[in-house]
Design a protein that fits this description.
Blueprint: E1 5-8, E2 11-14, H1 18-24, E3 32-36, E4 42-46, H2 51-64, H3 71-78
Antiparallel strand pairs: 1-2, 3-4
Length: 81
């Protein structure tokens, strides 16, 4: 896949196609690590996993999915043994 280098202020930037962004789970403000390999290629990957950030995202997800009545309790009350 070829990416175009564009000027961004005094720097240069690469635009990452949306399919790759989705697959890597990136979004605006995400941190990535760039590394120049021995053969001269450029490797870009998501930055190391951050436990605190994950905990905050998990807490937000739990708030959006409240617990409902237990399915097991429903089965116990309607099923004959």
């Amino acid at each position: 896949m070829d990416l175009q280098v564009a000027k961004w202020g005094n720097s240069l930037a690469l635009r990452i196609p949306s399919e790759i962004v989705r697959r890597l789970g990136l979004r605006e403000g995400s941190t990535v690590e760039a590394q120049l390999t021995i053969d001269g290629s450029l490797s870009i990957r998501p930055a190391q996993w951050d436990r605190n950030t994950f905990a905050l995202e998990l807490a937000d997800a739990r708030k959006s999915q409240p617990l409902s009545e237990s399915v097991i309790d429903q089965l116990r009350t309607t099923t004959r043994y």
